[in-house]
Design a protein that fits this description.
This protein is α/β, with parallel strands linked by helices. It is 56% helix and 9% strand. The protein has 14 helices and 6 strands. It has helices spanning 8-18, 23-30, 34-40, 46-57, 80-105, 111-141, 152-163, 167-174, 178-186, 193-202, 258-266, 271-278, 282-291, 297-313, and strands at 4-5, 61-66, 69-72, 144-149, 206-210, 213-218. Strands 1-3-2-5-6-4 form a 6-stranded mixed β-sheet. The longest helix has 31 residues, at 111-141.
Amino acid sequence: MSTDHLPLPDILRGLILAAGLSQQETALRSGISPGSVAALCVRIPKPLLTWLRLVAALGGRVGVAWQDRTWTVPMPKIAAPVLEREWASWRTRRMVTTINHLRSAAPKTKRALLEERARTYAANEEARLRQRLGELKSATKAFAGAHRSQGLRVALRLIATRIGLRAEELTLLSGASLSACQLALGELHDGRLATMHRLCSALGARLEIALPAGSIAIGFCPPGDWRPGMAETAAEGEADAPSARTPKDNQNRSSLGSAEMLALFDQGLSIGAIARQAGVSRQRVHKLAMDNGRTQRRQAVREQRVASGRELLGVS
C-alpha cells in the first residue's frame, strides 16, 4: 500500500474534483443524496469512524486505490481511557452475572460474600482474557494472503472468523461499544457504511485493508436508490438542515434578480448554490445562464475542477 497519507474527506473531495464532477452530478452517479456527498467531503460520519477504529484495533490500515495511486487513510487512535472504560463495563457485567448465578445456587448467602466471590472470579477471568487478547493480536499479525470482500462489515467478519474473534473481545481491543462490535460482526449489510462505499465505487476508487501479513480488497458497490426529487437524508449526528424552498404561495418568485443570479454565476458559484440563494430550481438558473450566453462556463468549470482535484491528490 502507498505511503501517501491524506484524510478521507480530502481524498473523496479530490476524486470528485479530478473527475470534473459537481456534487449534484456525483449524487446522480453514486445514488446518494447531494447532502451526503457534501458531508463526506467535510467529515467522517460516526458509523464510518467506528468501522475505521475496529480495523485499526486489528492492526489494519485502510487505503483508497484509484488508477495507479493508493492513498492510506490516517487511522483513529485508540485512547487508553477509552479502553479502560470498556474494561470497567466488562467487569460490571461479569460481577452482575456471577452474583446472580451464585444467588440462584445459594439463595441464603450474604451479599458481601457473593460480591467477594464474584470479584475474585472476575479478576481470574480478566487475567485469562488479557492473555487471550494477546494471542488474538498475534493471530492478526499472522493473517496472510490476498483476500476479497464485497462489503466493509464482511471484511471485518472475514478477519474475525479466521482468528476466532468474538464481539466482546473486539470491544476490549478497540474501545468501541459492545453493541457496535456485535453489529459489525453480526450484520451482513453495511447500512450507513454503504454511503461512502457507493461514492468511492462511482468514482472508480477501490477500498483496501492492508494487514501486517495480508490484505483485503473490497469490491465495487452498486449505486444507491437516491434520485432527484427525493428528500435529503440528514448526516449522522447532525440536525436537519433548514429548507431552501420558499413558501408555496411564493415558490415561483426568485429572491434574486436575473442580473444578480448571472453575476453570481460569473463569479463561479455553483448552480445549486445560486438556486438555494434565489429560492428557485437548478433548472431555472441553468436556463437563465444558457439564454444569456454562458455556454462556455460548464467546460471551463470542469477543467478547473479537474486541475484542483489533481492538485489536492498530488497527481501530476
